[in-house]
Input
Amino acid sequence: MLTLVSMLQRSELLYGSGIAVRDPGGNLTWRDYVDRSARAAGMLRGLGLRAGDRFAILARNSARYAELLHAAYWSGAVPVPINFRLAPAEISALMEDADCAVLAVEESFAGLLLQPPLDAWRPRAFSLGAASPSGLPCYDSLRDAAARLDPHDSAEEDDAILLYTGGTTGRGKGVRISHRNVMANALQLARTMSVTGGDRYLHVSPMFHSTDLKATAVSMLGGGHVYLPEFTPRAVLAAIQQYGITIGSLVPTMILRILQDASFGQFDLATLRLISYGSSPMPAERIRRTMQAFPGVGMQQVYGLTETSPVLAILDEDDHARALAGREDLLAAGGRTLPGLDVRIVDGGGEDVLPGQSGEIIVRGPQVTRGYHNRPAENAAVFRNGWFHTGDLGRLDDEGYLFVQDRKKDMVITGGENVYTSEVEAAICRHPAVLEAAVVGTPDERFGEALCAVIVPAPGTAPTPEDIIEHCRKHIGGYKIPRRIEFAKALPKSAMGKVLKETLRQRMRESPAVPE
Amino acid sequence: MLTLVSMLQRSELLYGSGIAVRDPGGNLTWRDYVDRSARAAGMLRGLGLRAGDRFAILARNSARYAELLHAAYWSGAVPVPINFRLAPAEISALMEDADCAVLAVEESFAGLLLQPPLDAWRPRAFSLGAASPSGLPCYDSLRDAAARLDPHDSAEEDDAILLYTGGTTGRGKGVRISHRNVMANALQLARTMSVTGGDRYLHVSPMFHSTDLKATAVSMLGGGHVYLPEFTPRAVLAAIQQYGITIGSLVPTMILRILQDASFGQFDLATLRLISYGSSPMPAERIRRTMQAFPGVGMQQVYGLTETSPVLAILDEDDHARALAGREDLLAAGGRTLPGLDVRIVDGGGEDVLPGQSGEIIVRGPQVTRGYHNRPAENAAVFRNGWFHTGDLGRLDDEGYLFVQDRKKDMVITGGENVYTSEVEAAICRHPAVLEAAVVGTPDERFGEALCAVIVPAPGTAPTPEDIIEHCRKHIGGYKIPRRIEFAKALPKSAMGKVLKETLRQRMRESPAVPE
Output
């Protein structure tokens, strides 16, 4: 069956002597790893968690984190990974929303449980550390004292994991991701990413994010995993060399920092075969530099959402080659849909737009969530006639390339014209003195909304607003040129490197520009 | 969604200019092919077929056959491919059983409609030929006159195709195969067979058999297809060369005949990358010869059933390499299960046997049928607690290799001992003077059942029963040695090359051996 329980049983039997986890603490075979997870499942049962009960994990990436996720799948309990960059009050609200019964916390975050509001969780918490100076019960001892639990006979449609989205701004929503959702995406990705049992996957993006589910395809085929608690260019490069990483999943800013790092040339990266990047497209020039820096390594751009467990579409190696051979426009595409995923582009009334026209991207398929936890109104809004409404604006060309133009809420209407801020950002980023740029709309008496750009200059450059405007004139229509341009040292970003546009909009509203 | 309708729409959009069909009649792009299928769907609707209605196809392999299958999927009608080797009365009974409303018939079989009982079908039949000397309405004209039908919005659980099994002996049963069944297996196989859009699949096993569904993985990724109306070694070799075939799906006897054919060395077979063989295992010596004859070509043995749409397990290239490097016993395995497929081995009471022990193979997974058409008693017998009981006997080793030992009904109990006839056959086949062998049990006063072997000698040899018995003594226990040995020019076989054991048993009963 398409459940993570079946997958673990199969991987234990078929790949038992293969290495599941490579870690400074020692390697674990699939036999050992599943055995540990099954004992950790016994521990969860001992803590009172029944099938369907939810429990929270607040930790950076680690092999223990992975074990605990798999223990949850094995036992039927539903893990709720939490963004550790949230404020304590947000973490508390999220755990209340998910009705968590237990909290697993990394030792270095255990101090949060000493004061309100999280002190209330102390009696229900255990430490994910090997030891717990903070005095919490300790995972390793709890697990080792527990007996192996028989696997829960989960149904394909049962919730496997509850992942919160939108957690850094506004009220987070828990996305219910079923066993079938995860396994369907693993099957789709296994072919697309050409996964084999020889692969070794580097987990460097935070495991509380849906992107981490991509690695299920590797577990399904008996490959191995390496977990990094935090991103530094040197840590990634060293891990590739030390553990023979074959697949790295990175966000574009990570790639940029790796390329710029002084230590870049010092590591042997020969095993790496695939860089999967997502969250935002990369300019052609950076793709070219990345491909030159990693010769022989394939590049895949992923378009996904937490609600799609996570991948909808992929711009694969062939597409990248085609782009660099003259079709640079393709790099702005989210890719082409995975087999089994249906996509349509609709207008505000829910009708299909004409071929090639823009509209809201709606999807259905085996990896699409059945909905948000306890959010009947939101569910009614985003699921209509079996189609999930992504809230992303895009278009589909006549070869099936899906161009994601903007978040619906990020599109700006200025002077009666629709402007996709992502298009303006892409134009600005082509200026050599621009490292990054973000464009938002702010209320404007004359135009309804006015376009504002915040730009991070490239190191050693000092562009002026006039430089940028003159550059934009060459690439985009006049009504798309920002009326206000500011420079900053950095853009506010989420844990996944996504620009927090609401924060920027607020900042712009609070300090209006000098009127023209 | 995991439906063949979604797949066709996606392949039309993403792979529109790629070649879907290579044919002496000319190539068809995916755009043209889906357009034709959608028009043929309009034709089916015009013939009165609504979604869920069934219609029969009686034909040898051809591109038109494939078009018509896809037209059915597109329209929601359910095709019922018929074994053209059946007697007219059997064909008639099968179409009644399936409640078919229309019959598509290859022109060369149209004569069957001139006499009872199939003459009753003449008003409901059309010819699959380009023209119809027999005077039936003709597919090409009907299709070309029809307008493109909007795709039916099939649900994943809807029946996609009804395939009859056991049709050559006893009363055939229609296996209901859903869209999800077919597409799940396509996703599983796409990775296992490393399918890409560059693949070209040779359809030479009859399309009325479930094995043909394997090719769906190729359609899903935009590859091409070549259809051969009948098997001859030369036709296969010529097609590989002419069309650049990359994947050939063959049964072991076909492979044997190809290797023995005088024309073997005359063709350029450089494009071939994978031979997928099934129905029965091959002796190690023949595998070795095949691999030498096709250097660089991977070998995959498939274990499947019509009820599993069709593939359960695969013995892949790595397994073959391992077998030839000293683990020859692996060649007797059906392979290792595909991801998402659960397997258990149970005793007569439905309890799991001890690890490594033999019992009935039971399975569940996304490619497993929901049941037989209009057979409530059979369905109740084979589906218990969500598990499909295959009727095959086997064992699972500690690395997940599934050894299929026998059909449950082919196991012989002699002198109180269980004997797997397949094991005895494998032992006999190791004798150099044996081309093929089949072993059955016949009623016996002293032993309950007695083992009888029918042997086809290798060309130019004349083994005696004593030779065979002496040989067997070296390889199997005394109670497994056949008490009766006969020689024949050929074994009775089904369309798929499976030995018809019931026919042999009957023959043995009708002409008893001289008593000892």
Q: What stands out?
A: The interface with chain A takes residues 1-2, 6-7, 9-10, 13-14, 16, 156, 183-184, 186-188, 190-191, 194-195, 220-221, 336-337, 339-340, 342, 364-366, 396, 398-400 of chain B (CB under 8 Å). The two ends of chain B are 64 Å apart (CA to CA). Residues 411-510 of chain B form a domain with the GMP Synthetase; Chain A, domain 3 fold (CATH 3.30.300.30).
